[in-house]
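Why do we care about 3D structure at all? Because function follows from shape, and shape follows, mostly, from sequence. That is the central idea of this module. The next example makes it concrete: a single protein chain, its amino acid sequence, and then its structure expressed as tokens.
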Amino acid sequence: MFITIQDSVISEIVEKKSKFIANVFYVETKEEAETKIKELKKRYFDARHNCSSYRVLEENNVIEKANDDGEPSGTAGAPMLNILKKNNLCNILVVVTRYFGGILLGTGGLVRAYSEVTINAIESAKKVQICSGKQYEVKVDYGNLENLKYYCRKNNINISNVEYLKDIVCNLDVKNDDIPKFLKDIEKRNINILEYKEICNKYIKEIVEEK
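And the structure:
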């Protein structure tokens, strides 16, 4: 289980005339992260630095990377990555662009600036919790579709796809913790499902309530 963000966000600070712009994205693969980094470097082609860090989950392994992009080693990418790790954030890319203002900040000043703008951006983002689960294909008759929708809403099960065929075929995303109850409710006919089968493992998103 880990936390990610729902939508891309941007934040900006100015420190001793240097402008720091943090762009934070939801990404699913390292290839997607690397493509985004290239896009940002083209967008901010006139900036002195485009430092980056990301964490992505691929095949149950967390892949991490940090890049200082010309800043003194360990003053940009690494602090940004540490923020992601401390907050259990994954499937996230952070790119911080710096427009140099002519005043040197020193290593401590750089760490503080890159950290501050990253934290500001992440705090402004809507958080999403990613849980392990499974996707099931279920078949119901037309008269029981609304009952299925009500059951799914009540039990926080996402209906990710609906096909209107001879019967209605739905894909349901069920968290691992909820699977025993889901299968028991099918067995006890608490849900009037004609057929069901497990399709695949799936990471499932849930909005995190802000405290």
